[in-house]
Every structure is written in C-alpha cells, then in structure tokens.
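Protein data sheet
==================
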Amino acid sequence: MNPDIYILGTGLSHDGSAVLLKNGSVCVAIEKERLSRIKHDGGNDTLAIQYCLDAEGIQLEDVSLVVQCANFEIPHRDQFHGKRIFADVNTPKLINISHHLAHAYSAVGTSPFDECVVMVIDGCGSPLNQFLSLHPDQEWLIPKKILDETEMQCEKDSFYFFDGNKLKPLWKDFSKMAIHTGSLLDLPTTLHSIGGFYAAVSHYIFGDMNDVGKLMGLAPFGHSGEYTIDAFQFNESSCLLVSKEWKAHFTNPSSGYDNFIENFNYYADVAFWAQEQVEKAVIKCMELRAALFPHKNLCYSGGVALNAAANAKLMDKGVFENLYFEPAAADNGLALGCAFYGWLAYLNKPKVTHNGTVCFGKDYDQNEILEALKKEPSNTYDQQLFSDEKSLLRFVAAQLNDGNTVGWFHSGSEFGPRSLGRRSILAHPGKANLKNHINRNIKFREDFRPFAPSILKDQVKKYFVSGRNSPYMILLDKTRSEYLDQLQNVTHRDQTARVQTVDETWNARFAKLLTEFFHQSGIPILLNTSLNKKGSPIVETPADAIKLFNETALDILVLENMVLTKTHTVEPNSKHGNTPLNASMK
C-alpha cells in the first residue's frame, strides 16, 4: 500500500492561509484570521500550518512538499514576520510560485473542468523581477517596453490555458505601481488596476480600502447617469488602463459616519458609478481575451472575482459558455493554489475531481463544546442537548419561523469570505424589520447592507429570475416581483439578491434545515449571513461562537446538537420595530 502524499500550500500575503492536500484532495484548510481573530491577518504562517497538521493528525515530516506564495518577496524558510515552523528542519522541500499563478491554480484545482481558460484579475500581483526569477521561461510573454522599464511593475491581469494537468500562460499584463500623493483616491496597488480602483473609491467613501464589499452593497442606492466619466480605457494592445481624469470629479471624501449619512445620496451615486465602471471593465477584459483565445470554459479568480454583481453581468453577456468563479478568489485562496500547483505541476499527478465543497475546517466534537461552555459560564441562557437530528431541526425551524435569530455552528468551517451554512447567522426572510435588527443589534453594521438568501436548489427558479446554480453566494440574481414581500429581508434595494443554492451533497444538515423550515413556513429560503460582527473574522471555534452569542442580540446558538437559548429577550422596538438609518434616503 502506497503511503499518503501530503502537500502543504501556504499564502503569506494579507488574508494568509494554509491548505493541506492529501493525495490530490483538500483534507483541511484554514485562514489565519479565523485563529488569530485579527481581520485580514497574514504574514507568519505557523499558526495556520499547525492547525492543518493537528486537524489531520500528522507531523511536519509527513508532508512531502511545501509550496508558498507572498506578494513582494520570497519568504525565508526560517523567518517571516517571526520564526516559522520550518526553521529547525531541512525537510520538507519548500518551493515558491508567483501570485497570479497561485490564484489560477486555486481555481482549476477546485473547478469542475478538465480543460479551460483562466482569468486572474486582482489589485496587485507579483513584481516583474520576482516573477521572472521564479518563472524565467515565461520572459517571452512580456513586451520589451515592460522589460526595459526601470520602475517596479507588478502583475495586473493574467490569462492561462489549463490542459487538465498544467497551466500554460497565454497573456500577462504588468503595470507600474501607483504614486502615493496622500489623496484618498490614490490607488493602493498598481497604476492600472481594477481592484485598486475599487479599493480607492471605497477609501473615498468609507475611509477604508478593505470595504469593497460594503461599496457593492451601497451602489444600488445610487442612480445612473450622475457621472459620465470613464475610469477605464483599453490601448491598442488590448491592455486595460485606469484614466487620470476621473479623480478630478470627486473632491468630497467622507470625513466620518455622520458625514456619510448626511450625504448618503451623493456617496451612493459615486458607488453606483464605480460599480458600473468595474462591470464594464471586467466584461471588456473578458471579451478581448476570449477573442484571442476562445474556449467554452472559463475559471475566474483574483480579488475582483468576488464582485457578485459584475459576475452576474458577465454570465448574462455569455462571453463564455461555462463559468466557474473561485469561491476563495482573494488572497486567502493563494494557499489553495500553491497546494494544487505542487500536486499537478510539480509532482505531475493527475487532477482529482473535486466534490464542490469549500468547507475545509476541522470538526469540533461534543466534548470540546462542553469544555468551551464550562469556560464561559452564564445564567443568561438555557442549554438543551438534542439526541436526534430530526428533533433538533424541528426545534430550530420553529424558532426561525417565529422570528428568532439563530447562530448556526456545524461541522468544518467554510474556506473563503462567505458563510454557507457551517458558520452562519440565520433568520426568517420575510419578517418585517428583522433585517434592520440583525444589522443594528447583532452585526453592528450599517443598515444599507444587504443579506443573502440561502435556498433549496430545486426551488431557485421559482423565486429568482435567472434561477442560476450559485452554491458559493458569488452571483446576484433578481427576486421575482411576486415574492418581494415574502423575501424582504434578503432582497436588496434594486430587487437583487446574492443567492446561495444549497447543495445537499456537501451541505447536508443545512439542506435538511431548509427543508424543515420550508415544511413549517412554506418558504424554502433562509436569511444567511456570516457568524461574526462587524470588524471581526467569522468564528472558528465553539468558544468564538459562545463569545459572539454573549456579545450580541442573537436569540439562539446551535453548537452541533447543543442549543443555547437566551433567557432574556431583546426589546421589541429594537427587534421588529426599529427604523433603518437610511429610511428617508430615497
């Protein structure tokens, strides 16, 4: 019997993570922020790697190969923002790959395609010198004028062909880094970056470059036609450029939340324009690459691939027949790509068909849950242990149907930015003002931000216009008009919804809960948002979940078969009668 082959992938960018492959399949993966409890944490990778080894029950010497990726440097084996787990050993072998290549392998490794093209669009990839030091055989791809440039340039967008085993680069574009002038509209990335543009507009509106998801939520409150300037253009070589002129039109950056609320309509219009610009740029990029390298299947990765509105527009355009959007498309997915590169390209092993799951975290047993409860004693909730799943599901569905909010903690956590029924906050999709209560008293975030509907996949065409399969909550759809009231808590201002179609093959208990809720309420849909509050990572451990339960107005917390029910209730006015902050901002 052949021994198991373990490959470890590690991403050392922001949003750091570690991934362990066993014989070509993901057996465990974790984002560092889930363990350190620091949002977007990266750098030193020992914490995330140790989690993976412990979860699988192996030692470092059991790993055959380590593949790593960082943004602007090649990390040393022994030190990177502190001592690394490899510091005192010479094995396993450690190799490096470039940023966009890691993004691309993360997509093909988990995609359903045996053959495809791959697009990577993000904020900023590897510097040219680092890229060429890692992949000198690809110098032929780079135009001479880029090779002759003396300033630092970084990957901007890349296009590859996957033959079922290896990636072949077809197109790579590089850009000089943006100049920092002190303006909130400075791109934090390369000079000509879709991701950098979106981050700059986020900085202008919210004072934070990492609030790009919030920007997409704000956009539907804006209006078309308020700004006619184009942020992007394409040169004669089909390279995307960010224009210089657009910044002159935006001279009123928000000075804080009060200022933002006071000028809500203005910032919503800016967000609408920015979202529209990104959608047009992404589609044009795809059309130009498809014209040069036609193929029916596309994988799409990089941080820009998380823009659910742009993704839906791309599907509507039909540039490619079949599309796969990498669920962990941002830098948290780099480790995933590193691991798959090690298996497919370095060891030259055949691709193993992926079953579609993104739930790669470790399981926590009942003893671990009980230990966590002992460490957080409280007289504010009752505990009930259910002996069978059917009784548990009936109880939780009834509570949801009554309008209570539920923290749902089950099995291994999701890898990536979306909670898909393993670490979720769940609620009724149609109870009036419940959305506002969750935003204000549980998530502690702005009232304009939407929530997603999770739906049984065989019901999606009935409730949503396109009715697409969307298991990763990474595509927008439109709620059918006859269900707008019934789905008021999961339908956004423009009647869109970031739908999750629940796949029972890898999300069985969540599918069963939806089925039971459907039986009790007549609605096969639940409001689903991540089990965290604003500014905090999604919970990983039972202790994290209990802490969140105690700090928020969640009514119920389900920890596997253990149910905690608050013995005190939230004031009615704050739960179902509060007025959203932007109620008058029509």
